[in-house]
Amino acid sequence: MNTVPSQHQRVLSGMRPTGKLHLGHYHGVLKNWVQLQHEYSCFFFVADWHALTTEYDNTGIIAESVWDMVIDWLAAGVNPGSAKVFIQSQVPEHAELHLLLSMMTPLGWLERVPTYKDQQEKLKEKDLATYGFLGYPLLQSADILVYKAGLVPVGDDQVAHIELTREVARRFNHLYGREAGFEDKAEAAAKKMGKKNAKLYNELRRKYQEKGDDEALETARALLEGQQNITLSDRERLFGYLEGGGKIILPEPQPLLTKASKMPGLDGQKMSKSYGNTIGLREDPAEVEKKLRTMPTDPARVRKTDPGDPEKCPVWQLHQVYSNDEVKSWVQEGCRSAGIGCLDCKQPVIDQVIKEQAPMRERAEEFINNPNLVRKVINEGGEQAREVARSTLVEVRQSMGLEYR
Ligand code: TRP
Ligand code: SF4
Fold first, then answer.
1. Which of 38, 284, 340, 382 has its CB surrounded by the most CB atoms within 10 Å?
2. Is residue 101 in contact with ligand 1, taking CB distance under 6 Å?
3. How many domains does one find in the chain?
4. Is residue 273 part of a domain?
5. 288 vs 280: CA distance, rounded Å
6. What are the tens digits of pLDDT across the range 275-332?
7. Do 60 and 113 reside in the same domain of the chain?
8. Does one domain contain both 66 and 140?
9. Whose CA is nearest to atom 3 of ligand 2?
10. Nearest protein Cα to ligand 1, atom 8
């Protein structure tokens, strides 16, 4: 278990800068980030080192995409006043933790991560039999653990990476959480909560450890979460001691799965750069209109007088994202009876997409005209991120016995 106490929960997520963002990113990821930033302490970063694992021979695309991507985030409503927005390579602690973790991560754990083989298959034209690519998920683990993030919003394809992160954290805590005199220190820490609380803690701990009483575990956790006057270090000891392990230095994160809002692309498949079926997040309205007007429809509707079937039409999928019930029944009825033409049918979607993008284009304008503003956001976010990352590394080095440096 060893999860993060909820009141301290941080949310962390990253995106690789490998091209312009599209509406699939907006509906699948960014809308969710914008929501989360009001509920948690959020860290959102540009995973430029991760991009290097596949673009090491084409680094230009990274440099080109970084700033555009940050502007896309800001345009979508990510608010640097509440979320920390930064670039991975500006926080070298990610790399240091990655290196330290690599020393204790069995090779088999990385070879078994499904994306390792899948991506090599999928990107056949690239040589991904590299050290860096094998380490991709471990670098991701470092990204997460360096902030002790409790929740990581990701898609299904990334759940295995969070699972790896949990295993790595567990192994780390097992290896290095057993400081000298751990038990004595934990018991002293319990006393610092006051007589009554210490007694309760010890009782609950016994119940959990002797009888496997999960309810006692939960109660004890809640008790610890409620303690305002103990140090971070003592809190980690007490969490670890509760479960019979050592000090919990790197807590295990949980994936936060976004309700699979699969944004359909212009051809009915999932919107994705590799399918060439995207609408850019801030694409020019005239271009959006052109793309939608020329997108395919039910192939059986050759002439306007041929009745169609929305189920066989990618435009219908877009109506499901963008239209209300009234418009949707107008489509169903008009399509099946050949009462409306396909261009008529597309118009409400065109209008809605352009309307959705309007505030994003507007917000982006300010940043496009003033690149220093974007740099300022990134510099400040990096500053805040480094502060947290540095303090984790101090603790990590200490627990590994590396404080001689
Ligand atoms: N691997 C993620 C992706 O391809 C990007 C990423 C890198 C990430 N580090 C992360 C996501 C840490 C969440 C947390 O989408
Ligand atoms: Fe598709 Fe609409 Fe044309 Fe029917 S009328 S085929 S739903 S675009």
1. 382
2. no
3. 3
4. no
5. 8
6. 999 999 999 999 999 999 999 999 999 999 999 999 999 999 999 999 999 999 999 9
7. yes
8. yes
9. 342
10. 14
Q: Are residues 173 and 91 in the same domain?
A: yes
Best residue among 293, 313, 340 to mutate for probing ligand 2, ranked by most atoms within 8 Å of CB: 313
| One-letter amino acid for residue 378 of the chain | I
| pLDDT at position 1 | 45
Report the separation in Å between the CA atom of 310 and the middle of ligand 2, taken as the mean of its atom positions: 6
Taking CA atoms only, the protein residue closest to ligand 1 atom 14 is 13
Residues 32 and 158 in one domain: yes
Task: Evaluate if residue 13 carries a pLDDT over 50.
Answer: yes
Are 123 and 190 within one domain?
no
Q: What's residue 325's pLDDT?
A: 98
Any ligand 1 atom below 6 A from CB of 47: yes
Residue 352's region, left for phi above 0, alpha for psi from -120 to 50, else beta, is: alpha
Distance of CA 399 to the CA centre of its chain: 28
Q: What pLDDT shows up at residue 16? A: 97
Show the tokens assigned to 344.
Answer: 């008529």
Within a domain: 28 = yes
Quote the pLDDT of residue 29.
94
pLDDT per position as a tens digit, 57-92: 999 999 999 999 999 999 999 999 999 999 999 999
CB 267 within 8 Å of CB 275: yes
How many whole angstroms separate alpha carbon 345 and alpha carbon 45?
A: 39
Question: Which residues form the domain of 188?
Answer: 182-242
Instruction: Specify whether 377 is located in the same domain as 361.
Output: no
Here the tokens at position 3 are 């999860």
CA dist 136 and 49 (Å) reads: 9
| C-alpha of residue 52 to centroid of ligand 2, in Å | 42
Instruction: Tell me the best of 10, 15, 151, 257 to mutate to test the pocket of ligand 1, counting ligand atoms within 8 Å of each CB and taking the most.
Output: 15
